[in-house]
């Protein structure tokens, strides 16, 4: 069985998912001299895996060019935790409904990835959810320029992720990137995808071992 097929089987048959975060990842992983910010604000995102008949896909959003932070970048739906949310899962579901109109009833929360710390001062909890079609999305035009899906097989491709760099404060800053046709997934989102690859690969191996 191929790696992609094993991952599909692990997610679909067992809803295999990451357990609660045990590790802190972040922009500093590839840039140890940067270090995480001293003050962090809590946030959460949804990593939506769509259970389509042909293959699993991942939902991404393209942020509008007018936003004050991360304008035009590709991201997962999500945002800051509010006091009334209670848990990162509640934040991820609320923000997803607000940003792209995806109903909670279509999302099965299956776990979390590792906590991700950004250089902009957020401690992000990535919440993984399996989305069951059909669904209709209604993106918030003030935040989301576009919603699109990428095959999970692309994320799992051995040629991904790539390591790219840009100059930041006079020094090269390294980051993960997943160049997709006419898209450029990089930064924190790409870092979370690296974690997702690790987790799903481990789940697929466990499922395969259990079947022997």
Automatic annotation (TrEMBL):
Its cofactor is Mn(2+); Mg(2+). Residues 40-176 form the Nudix hydrolase domain. GO terms for molecular function: coenzyme A diphosphatase activity; metal ion binding. It comes from the Bacteria. The keyword Methyltransferase does not apply. Transmembrane segments: none annotated. Keywords: Hydrolase, Magnesium, Manganese, Metal-binding. Residues 1-32 are annotated as: Disordered. This is CoA pyrophosphatase.
